[in-house]
Structures are given as C-alpha cells and as structure tokens.
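DOMAIN: structural biology
WANTED: fold as tokens
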Amino acid sequence: MFISVFGAVESGVIYAIMALGVYLTFRVLDFPDLTVEGSFVTGAAVAAFSIVNGIPPIVATILAAIAGFFAGCITGLLHTKGKINSLLAGILMMTALYSINLRIMGQPTLSLLNETSIFDQLEAIWASTGLDAIFNGMLTALGLEQLPGTWSILIVMTIVTIGIKFLTDYYLKTEVGLALRAIGDNKRMIRSLSANTDSLIIVGVGVSNALVALAGGLIAQLGGFADVNMGLGLIVIGLASIIIGEALFGTKTIVRATLAVLLGAVIYRIIVTLALRVDFLETGDMKLITAVIVVVALVTPKIIQSRREKKRRMLKRQRLKAGGE
C-alpha cells in the first residue's frame, strides 16, 4: 500500500502542474477551456517524438511546453478575433489537436521504454551522489521500509512544481497578471480602461496550455509512452483538483489558492489510488470515481455552510427569546 500511495503522490506532483494550468483559465480568466485535453497529449507527443529522434530530454520537455503555448494561443485567437464562444473554441481546438497529435507521433502510441527520459537522468545523478544508500541505510537502521528507487523523482519534481507555483504567484501579481484577474472578474470594466483584453486572454490561455503540455511531456516520460487518448477526461481531473484543494484549504489569497490547487491534485491522486484498491472497483471505474469525488467536493462545503447558518439562526432566536423574557 505504501508503494501505491508513493506512486500516487509522485504522479500527483506532476499533475499538479496541469491543475495550475486549468486554474489559470477556469478560475482566473473564467474561461472554460477544453483545449487542455488536446494540449496535454500534444506535450506528450512532442516530448516523445523529440526524445525518440535524439533530442535531449530536457530540450524535448521545453519544446512540449512551447507547443502547448501555441495551441492555447490559437484557442485564444479563435475566441477573441474569430468571435467564437470560448467553450466552442476549446472544443474545436481539442478536436483539431487529435489529428495533429497523430501526425506528430505517426501512430496512436509512441513508446519511450528503450529511450532515456529526463527521469532516468535524474535517477542517475542522484545515484552518483550516494544519497540513496545513505537514506535507505538510515531507514533500515530504524526498522522502516526502504524508499522506492524513484524517490529522487518525487523530490526533484516537488521542487520544480513549487518553483512553477511561485512563478505563477509572481506572474499573477504583475501588472499583466492583475489585468488577467480583472478580466475574469469584469471584462467590460477592463475594456473601459483601454486595456487590450484580447491580447491578455490569448497570452493567458497560452500560458495555461503551456503548463498543461509541460505536465503531459513529463507524464509521458514517467509512464514510458505517449498515447493519443491519454488526455480524455483531463479537464475533469483538473477541476477535481481545484475543487478539492479549495474546499480543504481555502482561496483567500493567490498564494493560498495556488497552493490549494497543488495539494488538491496530490490528494485527488491518492483518493483514486486508494479507491481502486477496493475489491468491487476496477480500473475502468476511474471516471466514475472522479465524478463522485467532484460531486462530494462540491456538495460537502454547501451542506456544512447550510448547517452553520441554521445553527446561527437558532442561536439568534434563542437570544431574542431570552431577551424578550
């Protein structure tokens, strides 16, 4: 069970980058962008194709993020310049990306099992430092289970994800970032101040999909393959991560909100992993589990708030009754 949870946390840290991208469009821009289901695969496809053709993994991962940025910008252009509804623009781009991703990979699935990924390089670097032997020796001396061989991946990806989180926080506090947040709240007001909302939306959706594609490229390297259908249902996973994080940790500030998204992504992966260990649930039930998690995360806070308000009203009536007597 420890190994399963460890694997869930490991993948959850990477999916947290994707959740941050969804957060930018869904919460900040108030833009229901379905492009992410295609751009995630685009990132995986570009990274896998690049690595297979001899490009260094780190460069391949950067190219994946750039490809996602351009995909997002096209969606933004369709919405702002083409005057297409935001939801429809995302659906159109997602549909187009399916064919584009097939073109990039040349086949529905592209294997990386015989290739060197960025995680293989990380493991080699950590192994050369001797830290694996030191930590596992300490755990053995304490009578604890040894860490999986990929623990270095978790540490490095946690650092990278937190770094992206801080960059996102900084970006949203800049003049451009504040304008993006204002667009999500009141687009007409920003236009009245002579701000170029179209350019801001295009860049915002582009940055969002760059993060999603980056996560796709990393997941492809972690899993050892890129598949044309690996992005199906991804928007729901991203929303589940956001909703779970916000319900548990709140959204009073941008720093707290982005941290909630990261933790929500990890918690979501852990919940799904533990749920799949139940005897009557199968791997094919993952979509159902995701839907149930989202429903529970949405309904529970409202039920709690309703009970609190009911309790306040009861206390108020009791005070009024006591004062009248």
In short: The mean pLDDT is 85. The chain is about 80% helix and 0% strand. Residues 17 and 215 are 6 Å apart (CA to CA).
